[in-house]
Design goal:
Elements lengths: L16 H12 L3 H9 L4 H4 L4 H6 L4 H16 L9 H4 L3 H10 L5 H9 L4 H4 L4 H6 L4 H13 L31 H6 L20 H6 L5 H4 L20 H10 L4 H12 L11 H4 L4 H12 L1 H14 L3 H21 L8 H10 L10 E6 L4 H4 L10 E6 L10 H6 L4 E4 L8 H8 L5 E5 L16 H7 L1 H12 L9 E7 L9 H12 L5 E5 L2 H15 L7 E2 L4 H9 L10 E5 L3 E5 L1 H6 L3 E4 L13 H13 L5 H9 L11 H14 L4 E8 L5 H11 L5 E5 L6 H13 L8 E6 L8 H14 L13 E8 L3 H6 L6 E4 L5 H17 L7 H7 L4 H11 L8 H15 L5 E2 H8 L8 H7 L7 E6 L5 E6 L2 H15 L3 H10 L13 H10 L15 H9 L3 H12 L5 H14 L2 H14 L3 H24 L5 H27 L23 H17 L10 H11 L14 H12 L1 H24 L6 H21 L3 H10 L4 H15 L5 H6 L5 H17 L5 H21 ...
Parallel strand pairs: 1-2, 1-5, 2-4, 3-4, 5-6, 6-7, 11-14, 11-15, 12-13, 13-14, 23-25
Antiparallel strand pairs: 8-9, 10-12, 16-18, 17-18, 19-20, 19-24, 21-22, 21-24, 22-23, 24-25
Length: 1538
């Protein structure tokens, strides 16, 4: 009903409060509530003219109306009228439409639009805004200027279309019915909305309110606003009701029951600080608020979790206890309904959005290499819907739930399906490589507890409140985040961070929010997505990030799907698993399912299943088959798909190399016939000739008979591999299944015996009580693919039943098969002639074909361009380092490709015209990445030759260019395997074609030396500056300098630099070698000179002293270190590592000592050619004559020589003793230790023998000397006779216990003479001291035993009883603490009981030998096994002792390597000849220890093979053969009696 408005007075100052109220309503057209505030505050005209915007804001008026009132007031004071500057429709916009315009057309930041919405900025207010008004709302200048400019532009444009943007919606629904003005909020909430058919459950999830609904749904009490005009806002009078929290609705319903005064009292208490409300609401915000406004304001202010209690407390304060009780009751009922009915969700496209976020628009999760999940506290009922985590390739989970690992927790649930290692953030500190290795990252999920772990019952694992977490844990979590974001750990763009919020985050003071901020310090926000359990959780999380991080996460968030829907959506994404599970063969032609958790455990193995590739893709998709074929025949690695598709199409089989059947038969025969639990088979092959492909083809065809696996990483610890192989063998079955294990491109060349030993040991431990029927299946066959430059030669050096080889040469039949395959490919592929890897093999590796390819492709090659340089780098790497590549990320950086979302093809396109030679591979190391390489090694090699021939580009130029490029060595650049490849190229030394020895330098260094010798040192120096932590580079440079350049001072400088980087046996050995070569060079030079220079002697002795110190230190480190260095030195390089330093230091000491002896023997007064002067030298070195007593000419040179010798006298006089002790120690090594029969040991042994001959010549007198001395001293004949025999014993190395034992394998005549000499010495009883008497008596007894075994009828052999009595007397003299094991070893030989006999003392001597041996040989025996030289036979007396050479006589027609293998694996004792000769001793195993039983007597013995005893400490009866080693009796071929 219309009503006349009285005219206002012309002067504002004359206006009454009523006039001001009238002006605000009729002309300014603000909401009545704002006009009422001016009346309540008694603002008349005289006060109004003084008002500014700030004064209105102080009254609690929102910013929008305040700006409008200020604008109208200013014009009123100026006498002007409001003039529309913008189209009329703008002033009619509601504040929601203003919000829509800003979001949809200006793409304004959501935080700013929300601010304008909250401050009631409708269209009529917006047109009054100036730039300063925006700035006062904390909107930056840029957006403010843009808004004003766009407003002006509206005059020139058609009216924009505005689309309502509801906060949330999931599921398709009809639009809600309009809500009329005046309808209560509760009534609007109760209005029922029709639901779509796919939402059958009743939804009661809390709903967020809408400001437009709030403004239009005011429900004023009639008594309060009865006579006040109610102007409608501009725009539509109806609106769509969006989700409003149910708590808000219930509070509004309750407040509707209050009368006006009670509502005012309610507002009064809201302004005060009460017990339940620590934050009062400012009065200005409460002015004019109706019940709906009040309910909404309270919900926003206190949050849904606290607002209920606050309302109840205030109702009680104003004596409305009944309403308080009713509200509490209503909310309890609603919560119960909410729990039972689930969640209210509305919208449509969140499922597709989730797929897009996880797959980048695809259908498979494979777009990302790894996922990182950050999760907060979960509830038990949520966990069932989080199975999707088991499908993601998780790198790590950052878990802020301390109860996650207890029953009902997320971590425990995940570990039921997958492997996860439980970590703390602090474990991520340290060197990146070490952290990756120690935590098993990439291979198994790392579950990181970031705020406590309650399954561990100690205080240090309790969760912390925010303040304490910030002090104690925040830094560790920040470092963890920094580690994860390191591009060298996970490549940018190949990993996705997922924040999984399973409970609300209500404040910024939450560790998970700090973690989000840590992530965005390192990576773009776009790399992080969020999945929230509810809309409320999402809205608060989004608000926090907008406010604190200035970023809107709406497009990266999922919040409208239930967890069940999230789970189902992700589980439906590829890659798809077999519907029946991955299957393994089992006993009785059955099959078992390979569980994902079991496969997670076996991190070292890539397992081939029975149903590999089946039902994992659309097999009718011809494009997949073509792509798989194309990639392989171009030069990609063979995949199981290649064999699978060929099996499906029998008319187009996979091309088999001619050795296919041989390898297959070899494997099957070993399964059938071998008695060993683990068998090593070798397949030697030329690089690039299809060796790995052949091995995998055989494995594919045997997957029904074996459980098959490929060893992923040859550097994986062997014991761990063994455990995993045995797990695979017995998985899901009570009976074992045979395992076929492929070891590809073994860097240990043909002998990974450590792996064989570890698997054998593990098999013995696990299957010690296996039934006889199952023994054949309890086997592991290792097929060892060995890349070789002479495969046929290596094959001939090995057992033909356990080796095969293939070469880069096709048979006629193979050529025919390749021709046939080419014709097949022509039908299905365009230009298969461009499948260069295939064509190289088809051409029978024709060099002309390969060189023509290289020449044509490299036409007009320009090395100054980036792509040409990169291709040259690849050619160099792929020629000299097998399986090398450069990561795509590094290629992109080098080529300066700036695209943010670049594809693999963009690299290849950039590399045109060389891209037809390139292929992209997936590399498993470093968590998996994509790398680029040249198709075939022969193409890479041919390209290098072409570059040198046609473009004068040498390999040295390319190498220097790589080392010069800063990008490759920059911190933070993703290099992956590129750095190791460069280093390997420089230092990797190949095995020589014959023997175990390696070349002196890497093939690349040889090539550079051949092209430009002077650049070798320059390259090494540059490489050393790049690889500052590598000892290998300076070590290799030192070797180059002392061998090739004879620059010893410079070589020593680099050798010391290597030692300073890493002290190990090899770096110290290099220092020793530099000094040794320097010494040899000096000797050679001095021999050419005619004049004598005493200073040369001084220099040489100093050099020798330094060399011996270095060799001793090297040997000391070798003897004491438990494990090889993680970073091998050059002499222990990647190409052919020595198993250990063994005795190189001892040999070095000998070499230096004899060089000094040679130098001394050339001095004027020690000349070797003069017998007398030689005698002087002997006497001086034996400390029998001081240098001052040596006869010499008295001249300046000799006097200077004497001065120098006296200066170094201590060093020189110790040499003879040191040499003698070293010989004895090395004798022990080669006699007692179980050797590996390597050429290194053989070479060392020859060197030692050569030096011993020199020792004999220098220190042992000749028969002529002795005869001459007899003539000169007839009264000393007896003394001379004794000395003569002792010198003979020393000459024959028979003056030591070890040396006599060595004569078991020498002619009998020699030991007969030795025994005769000892008998003579014993008879004369002339000893220097008791120690000498004991030693010679012990040696005499042993020489008798050895003589008896070689020549039992010799007249010099004493009887067993005589020797036993002599030994017993000696044992009484030495007691049980003799420092050498020799007398106790004799006690084992002579006093070991016969069957039925009990010698109670023998156990005492067994313990004594074990106690004495370590004292003498503790360093020598460290990590090594001893060998028995004598065994217990079936005869009596001395006849019962059987020597190893006597046993070997039965196999004299067998190859030495094969015989050594029989001894190694114990199969020698299965031979009938051995069984007939040796006595099987009865015994027991108790508490894991072996005892020989003689009546009640139990004698402790050691198992010769550690794997011979089962685990479990079972007490068992056993029998075995007995051998006698220097550290005690050994049990061979242990058999369980039951």
């Amino acid at each position: 009903m219309s009503q006349s408005t009285p005219e206002l007075p012309p002067l504002i100052e004359k206006w009454t409060t009523a006039a001001v109220h009238q002006w605000l309503l009729s002309q300014v057209k603000v909401h009545q509530s704002w006009a009422d505030i001016f009346t309540e505050e008694e603002v008349s005209g005289e006060y109004l003219v003084l008002f500014e915007k700030k004064d209105m804001l102080d009254l609690g008026i929102k910013h929008g109306p305040a700006v409008k009132i200020t604008s109208f007031l200013q014009r009123l004071k100026e006498g002007s009228h409001h003039k529309a500057q913008f189209p009329g429709y703008v002033e009619k916009w509601t504040k929601e439409q203003v919000n829509q315009w800003l979001l949809q057309h200006l793409k304004m930041y959501g935080k700013y639009t929300e601010q304008l919405l909250d401050e009631d900025v409708s269209g009529d207010c917006l047109v009054c805004f100036s730039k300063q008004d925006f700035l006062d709302l904390d909107i930056k200048s840029g957006p403010a200027v843009k808004i004003l400019a766009e407003l002006r532009q509206l005059n020139k444009k058609p009216e924009p279309t505005l689309t309502p943007t509801p906060h949330t919606s999931t599921g398709r629904r009809e639009a809600p019915k309009p809500v009329q003005v005046g309808q209560s909020l509760a009534q609007a909430k109760d209005t029922k909305q029709p639901e779509s058919s796919d939402k059958t459950q009743s939804k009661t999830e809390e709903m967020e309110g809408n400001e437009s609904a709030k403004a239009q749904l005011s429900n004023r009490k009639a008594s309060e606003r009865e006579d006040s005009p109610q102007p409608e806002p501009h725009g539509s009078v109806t609106t769509t009701l969006l989700e409003i929290p149910m708590i808000t609705v219930e509070i509004q319903k309750t407040l509707d029951n209050l009368v006006k005064d009670d509502l005012k009292r309610f507002h009064f208490y809201l302004q005060e600080q009460t017990q339940s409300m620590q934050r009062p609401i400012p009065r200005g915000k409460l002015e004019g608020k109706d019940t709906m406004d009040t309910a909404k304001l309270m919900t926003d202010h206190y949050g849904k979790d606290s607002v209920l209690q606050a309302t109840i407390d205030i109702l009680k304060e104003i004596n409305q206890c009944q309403l308080a009780s009713q509200l509490e009751k209503n909310m309890g009922q609603l919560k119960q309904q909410g729990l039972s009915k689930g969640a209210l969700k509305k919208e449509t496209n969140q499922g597709d959005k989730l797929k897009d976020l996880l797959t980048c628009g695809g259908n498979s999760l494979e777009n990302y290499d790894r996922f990182i999940v950050v999760v907060n506290r979960s509830r038990p009922e949520q966990v069932q819907y989080l199975q999707f985590l088991s499908k993601l390739k998780l790198f790590s989970v950052l878990d802020f739930d301390p109860d996650s690992a207890v029953p009902g927790g997320l971590c425990l649930s995940y570990r039921e399906l997958r492997m996860a290692n439980l970590h703390t953030p602090s474990q991520y500190q340290g060197q990146t490589d070490s952290v990756i290795k120690n935590l098993n990252l990439y291979k198994q999920t790392s579950w990181v507890f970031c705020n406590g772990r309650h399954d561990l019952d100690n205080d240090s694992n309790k969760n912390l409140d925010y303040r304490n977490w910030l002090r104690k844990s925040c830094r560790d979590v920040e470092q963890l985040v920094s580690f994860i974001c390191n591009p060298e750990v996970l490549v940018h763009g190949r990993r996705l961070i997922l924040f999984l919020l399973l409970s609300p985050v209500d404040t910024e003071k939450d560790p998970i929010f700090d973690t989000y901020k840590s992530f965005i310090k390192h990576i773009e926000e776009g790399s992080i997505i969020t999945i929230c359990e509810s809309q409320r959780t999402y809205l608060k999380w989004r608000e926090l990030i907008q406010e604190k991080c200035d970023f809107d996460i709406e497009h990266l968030s999922i919040y409208e799907l239930s967890l069940s829907e999230v789970n189902g959506t992700i589980m439906a994404l590829g890659p798809f698993n077999h519907s029946s599970g991955r299957l393994l063969p089992s006993s009785g032609s059955s099959a078992v399912v390979l569980k994902q958790k079991d496969e997670d455990f076996m991190t070292a193995l890539d397992i081939l299943c029975l149903n590999q590739c089946e039902n994992t893709c659309d097999e009718n998709n011809g494009d997949l088959k073509k792509e798989v074929e194309k990639e392989f025949y171009r030069g990609g690695k063979v995949k199981w798909w290649n064999f699978y598709f060929c099996d499906k199409d029998k008319e187009k089989p996979f091309v088999k190399r001619d050795k296919y059947e041989n390898v297959k038969k070899m494997i099957k025969s070993q399964l059938r016939d071998s008695k060993n639990m683990c068998v090593l088979l070798n397949l030697f092959h030329d690089p690039g000739c299809g060796g790995t492909t052949l091995a995998k083809h055989v494995m594919w065809d045997l997957r029904q008979e074996f459980r098959c696996a490929v060893l992923k990483d040859n550097t994986h610890p062997k014991p761990e591999v063994a455990i995993q192989v045995i797990k695979l063998m017995k998985l899901e079955s009570e009976k074992p299944s045979p395992v076929l294990l492929l070891v590809d491109d073994s860097k240990e060349t043909e002998n990974p015996h450590d792996l064989v030993y570890c698997i054998s040991k593990a098999a013995e431990e696990n299957f010690s009580n296996i039934h006889m029927d199952d023994t054949q299946n309890c086997k592991v066959i290792i097929l060892n693919c060995v890349r070789s430059h002479s495969p046929k030669t290596q094959y001939k050096q090995h057992n033909p039943t356990q080796s095969q080889y293939i070469t880069a040469q096709l048979t006629q039949e193979e050529k025919t098969e390749f021709e046939k395959k080419l014709n097949e490919l022509k039908v299905t592929h365009e230009k298969p002639e461009n499948f260069y890897s295939f064509m190289i093999m088809k051409s029978n590796f024709d060099k002309k074909y390969i060189f023509d390819l290289a020449r044509n492709t490299l036409d007009k090659f320009d090395f100054s361009t980036k792509k040409a340089k990169l291709f040259a780098f690849l050619a160099l790497l792929n020629t000299y380092v097998s399986k090398s590549e450069i990561s795509l990320t590094l290629c992109k950086d080098f080529l300066e490709i700036k695209m943010i979302h670049w594809q693999e093809d963009s690299i290849l396109e950039e590399m045109t015209p060389y891209s037809n030679f390139l292929i992209i591979d997936t590399v498993e190391e470093c968590g998996g990445y994509k790398g680029i390489r040249i198709l075939h090694q022969s193409i890479a090699s041919a390209c290098l030759e072409e570059l040198e021939r046609s473009y004068y580009l040498k390999v040295s130029d390319i190498t220097m260019e790589i080392l010069h490029c800063d990008l490759f060595f920059s911190v933070g650049v993703v290099k992956h395997g590129f750095m190791p490849s460069i280093k390997q190229m420089l230092i990797q030394r190949q095995r020589k074609k014959v023997g175990d020895e390696r070349e002196t330098f890497s093939p690349l260094i040889y090539k550079i030396q051949k092209q430009e010798r002077q650049t070798v040192q320059e390259i090494f120096v540059k490489a050393s500056s790049r690889f500052v932590k590598s000892a290998s580079i300076p070590q290799a440079l030192a070797r180059y300098l002392y061998i090739n350049e004879s620059d010893y001072s410079e070589a020593l400088k680099w050798a010391k630099k290597a030692k300073n980087i890493k002290e190990n046996p090899y770096t110290f050995d290099t220092i020793g070698q530099v000094n040794k070569y320097n010494l040899k060079s000096n000797i050679h030079r001095e021999k050419q000179e005619t004049s004598l220079n005493p200073e040369d002697l001084n220099t040489n002795i100093r050099i020798a002293d330094n060399a011996i110190r270095a060799f001793k230190r090297a040997q000391e480190l070798a003897n004491t270190e438990d494990e090889p260095d993680e970073e091998a030195a050059d002499d222990e390089s990647e190409d052919y590592p020595r198993k250990s330093y063994t005795v190189y230091g001892y040999v070095g000491v000998l070499e230096i000592a004899f060089l000094i002896f040679e130098i001394l023997s050339r001095l004027p007064f020690f000349e070797e050619s003069d017998p007398m002067k030689k005698k002087y030298l002997q006497s001086f070195l034996q400390k029998a004559m001081p240098i001052t007593n040596v006869y010499k000419e008295d001249n300046e040179i000799n006097n200077r020589y004497v001065e120098i010798i006296r200066e170094h006298e201590q060093f020189l006089l110790n040499l003879k003793t040191e040499v003698k002790e070293t010989f004895e120690l090395l004798d022990c090594y080669f006699t007692y230790i179980k050797g590996n029969n390597s050429e290194f040991d053989s070479k060392n042994y020859c060197t030692i023998c050569s030096h011993f001959k020199k020792y004999v010549t220098l220190f042992c007198r000749t028969p002529e000397d002795i005869k001459k001395e007899r003539q000169n001293n007839p009264n000393l004949n007896l003394k001379i006779d004794i000395e003569e025999r002792r010198l003979f014993l020393e000459e024959k190395q028979a003056d030591t216990f070890t040396g006599i034992l060595q004569h078991l394998d020498k002619p009998a005549e020699e030991i007969e003479r030795i025994t005769e000499c000892y008998a003579f010495v014993q008879q004369q009883q002339q000893f220097i001291n008791k120690k000498q008497k004991t030693k010679e008596t012990i040696n005499y007894i042993l020489s008798n035993i050895v003589l008896y075994l070689l020549k039992p009828k010799s007249k010099h052999v004493k009887s067993c009883s005589f020797l036993s009595d002599l030994l017993l007397k000696t044992l009484q003299d030495v007691g049980l603490r003799y420092p050498f094991p020799d007398p106790y070893y004799l006690a084992l030989l002579l006093l070991w009981p016969s069957p039925g006999q009990e010698n109670t003392e023998i156990g005492t001597y067994v313990r004594a030998i074990r106690n004495s041996s370590p004292k003498r040989f503790i360093l020598l025996f460290r990590n090594r096994s001893t060998v028995a030289h004598l065994y217990l036979g079936k005869e009596e007396g001395l006849r019962r002792l059987v020597s190893k050479p006597q046993l070997d006589e039965n196999f004299k027609h067998m190859r030495r390597d094969d015989l050594a293998q029989l001894w190694r694996n114990g199969n020698i004792f299965k031979d009938k000849a051995i069984i007939n000769r040796l006595l099987r001793v009865s015994g027991t195993i108790e508490q894991g220890k072996v005892f020989a039983s003689y009546g009640k007597l139990k004698i402790p013995v050691r198992p010769a093979l550690l794997a011979a005893i089962g685990s479990g400490f079972s007490t068992e009866k056993v029998s075995f053969y007995l051998g006698f080693a220097i550290d005690g009796p050994l049990a061979y071929d242990i058999q369980y009696e039951n």
